[in-house]
Write a structure and sequence with these properties.
The chain is α/β, with parallel strands linked by helices and 759 residues long. It contains 19 helices and 24 strands.
Length: 759
């Protein structure tokens, strides 16, 4: 490792037995000395979380909603104990203006603003939360004592009216903010924290805020920290891993701004593994020529997500809408007479608690909803990774690029037939064995006990992921052709000191122990699994997409950094760098365009109201969480069919005929999905299914257009690289008429029409 001082272990977060999330006392660093005007009281997560899943008052539930002395977890509307007791007298409720303290002689209810000063001692604590006005643990008690108004209309400091749902009787609500963020991973939260200094931010996420790919990231974040390392060397490693398809401008930007991105995460409260002298401990992973991986043991993603969520949760300008599923972007024509430039002005969102549609309107919208690993039967991605952001962008006619480059992580835990590793659940996602294990000295062996990587690449186990994944796939298929049942290969670290392994990889060791394996002595059965989408919604160096007002970051975006294959640990770095750049562009957009958006917002609200009336006429029955979150059998069966088609056609090794047949089959499945939703009604799983098919179509279309093998895309009909094909595959989304898309050429050449079925 780089540096001369000895390494000391990081302070690792403790975990609740009932949750993957880790929560510690908030470590939010103030930007100035002394309290800011109108600063609100914070509710900090408890440090004492018993192993039975209860908080410090014996309550079960979200680890962030922790009762402390004199404080209560809050929802959209929050009451302290004195105010709630007084409500039994049915006194009038006074709603506070957002961002300004209220002083009154009555009984006050604080609504996401500053603490109230009044004779009833109604100073309240504030927290974010989830569905339909919030996950308020005191709601049921308050409803028994006094009636609650269904809607609170408030004014923000900018004077924009915001209508927020606070009850269960309203089917429709509209939220106006300055910045809308769809997704709550590292890119979305980094953007939200920066944007919150300039305006109101809504963070929409379809599950709890910490559930996403960031939370499961193990390895780390790459950055040039060591004095012996340079940004030029990092850029060279990135280009080599990307098979020289990376956009050089994007590579230079990310590598040059890497150290600043790490410093920003540290400022937000991330505690990375350090040496005894206090410097960051730097690891090395496959494809990197130097030690440059900043990490928090082998749980880097959990630590980053914890710090960012606590910082965002403490900011008065950030509001979380958990259990809200984004359905489609809202696009307006903003030229003369409504004809001309198209602009994104927000998104239609489904409130999962009752299936109601909430219209979110914003000057700037950021797509940061992650990848689409659920396209494949085996994936390291969580269940929420269904390609929602990319699918919405395609339907809104934004450009997507390089969708054929889907990365399969070479070493996910194999739990199939004959494996010594036990399954925890029948349909669990693949457990990832981080790249850092091979970077630390792990070796790969086939079923015959042979170390095989020397036959494929001189870098052995440190070769890029596409090379290692294809090598493993070839070994497994060769064994099958020889009549040997070998469903996996083996990763071995038993030759390394046990204490060293347990110190560096405590999370992996604990997980494997629960499954019956001792990492320090047993070989680990591994197999490739879908891991990361290197393509996505195409952006410029400021995160701006081809659709005005729409930005994209993280795995949802294609910035050009990854090219044909992602270099290990570059994804977290890219997310922070481009979130910051997108924020700066968004702030400029807010300053220039905010005054011109009122007519577009009003028109969007009117159109949403008309659509809601139409929907109610078709289905007057009020929705419920059981209806919208139901698991219809037809959607489950069709998802399995989609996964079968994608693994067969767009897996590690591909051929042109199978890709063509897959495109026809996916188009048929998309039409069938639409017909089923019209007949049986919409639900979360039907929306996710439609998004998966839309993204799958983009993947196979792009794969069919590339007439070479490069990086993650290997076509047996075109096994060699072709210099004329060394350009991005850019695909327009559904056209204005819903009929066709077009492949755009970055170089001279004939445009190629690409058919997309209308939705």
């Amino acid at each position: 490792s780089a540096g001369s001082c000895a390494k000391r272990p990081a302070r690792r977060p403790t975990y609740r037995s009932s949750s993957f999330a880790c929560w510690r006392r908030a470590r939010v660093r103030p930007k100035s000395t002394g309290p800011a005007p109108n600063a609100r009281t914070r509710v900090r997560p408890s440090r004492h979380l018993p192993g039975d899943g209860r908080n410090c008052d014996g309550q079960r539930g979200d680890p962030r909603s922790v009762r402390r002395r004199g404080r209560v977890p809050s929802g959209r509307i929050v009451r302290d104990r004195a105010a709630m007791s007084a409500m039994a007298n049915a006194a009038p409720i006074v709603a506070m203006a957002r961002g300004s303290p209220a002083a009154c002689s009555g009984r006050c209810v604080a609504h996401r603003g500053s603490p109230a000063a009044c004779s009833s001692r109604a100073a309240t604590s504030f927290r974010r939360n989830a569905a339909a006005g919030g996950r308020d643990v005191n709601r049921a008690r308050a409803r028994r004592r006094a009636p609650m108004p269904p809607v609170a209309v408030i004014e923000n400091p900018a004077g924009v009216t915001v209508t927020e749902s606070t009850g269960e009787d309203d089917r429709k609500s509209s939220v106006r903010v300055d910045f809308l963020v769809i997704g709550s991973g590292i890119s979305g939260l980094s953007y939200a924290l920066e944007a919150a200094e300039y305006g109101k931010v809504a963070v929409v996420t379809k599950d709890v805020a910490y559930e996403g790919s960031t939370h499961y990231a193990q390895g780390g974040i790459s950055a040039v920290i060591d004095p012996n390392d340079t940004a030029e060397e990092h850029a060279r490693d990135t280009q080599i891993a990307g098979d020289f398809l990376c956009d050089q401008a994007a590579v230079d930007v990310v590598c040059a701004e890497g150290k600043g991105a790490v410093d920003k995460l540290v400022a937000f409260g991330c505690e990375f593994t350090r040496r005894s002298c206090g410097s960051l401990h730097l690891a090395r992973e496959g494809g990197h020529s130097k030690h440059r991986i900043v990490h928090a043991a082998d749980m880097t993603g959990k630590e980053i997500e914890r710090a960012l969520l606590e910082s965002a949760g403490a900011h008065p300008n950030v509001t979380f809408y958990e259990h809200h599923a984004a359905r489609d972007l809202i696009v307006a024509e903003c030229g003369p007479d409504g004809v001309g430039r198209r602009r994104c002005v927000g998104a239609e969102v489904i409130r999962r608690s009752d299936g109601a549609v909430v219209t979110f309107l914003a000057c700037c919208t950021l797509l940061a909803s992650g990848g689409a690993g659920q396209l494949f039967p085996s994936t390291t991605n969580p269940s929420v990774s269904t390609g929602d952001g990319v699918a919405m962008a395609v339907r809104a006619s934004a450009d997507v690029a390089n969708m054929e480059f889907y990365q399969f992580h070479p070493t996910s835990l194999y739990t199939g037939p004959g494996s010594a590793a036990k399954k925890k659940k029948p349909n669990e996602n693949a457990f990832l064995i981080t790249e850092a294990v091979r970077g630390h000295g792990g070796r790969l062996f086939n079923h015959a006990g042979e170390r095989f990587m020397s036959r494929y690449d001189q870098r052995l186990e440190l070769a890029p992921r596409d090379v290692v994944a294809r090598a493993i796939d070839c070994e497994i298929k060769s064994a099958a052709e020889a009549g040997v049942e070998a469903g996996c290969v083996y990763l071995d670290v038993s030759h390394l000191p046990a204490d060293d392994i347990l110190e560096h990889f405590p999370g992996i060791a604990a997980e494997l122990k629960e499954r019956g394996l001792d990492m320090t002595s047993d070989r680990i059965p591994v197999v490739p699994a879908a891991h990361y989408l290197c393509g996505g919604v195409r952006t410029d160096l400021d995160g701006q997409t081809s659709l005005d007002g729409l930005f994209a970051c993280g795995e949802t975006a294609c910035t050009g950094l990854h090219g044909a294959n992602r270099l290990a640990s570059n994804s977290l770095l890219e997310a922070v760098v481009f979130a910051n750049r997108a924020f700066r562009a968004s702030a400029d957009r807010l300053a220039n365009d905010a005054g011109d958006l009122e007519p577009l917002f009003s028109a969007a609200e009117e159109a949403a109201a008309v659509e809601e009336i139409r929907r109610m006429a078709v289905n007057p029955t009020k929705g419920s969480v059981l209806e919208y979150d139901a698991h219809p059998e037809w959607a489950g069966v069709m998802r399995q069919e989609v996964q079968r088609v994608m693994w067969s056609a767009a897996g590690i090794v591909r051929d042109s005929d199978t890709l063509a047949r897959a495109e026809e089959e996916l188009e048929r499945l998309l039409a069938q999905c639409d017909a089923e939703m019209r007949t049986r009604g919409e639900c979360l799983h039907s929306h996710e299914l439609g998004n998966l098919i839309t993204v799958g179509l983009a993947v196979v279309k792009c794969a069919g257009m590339r007439k070479e093998s490069r990086g993650l895309h290997y076509n047996v009909d075109y096994p060699e690289r072709v210099e004329a094909e060394r350009r991005p595959t850019v695909l327009a989304g559904i056209g204005k008429e819903g009929e066709t898309g077009r492949r755009k050429e970055d170089r001279k050449g004939e445009d190629k029409e690409v058919s997309f079925p209308p939705r």
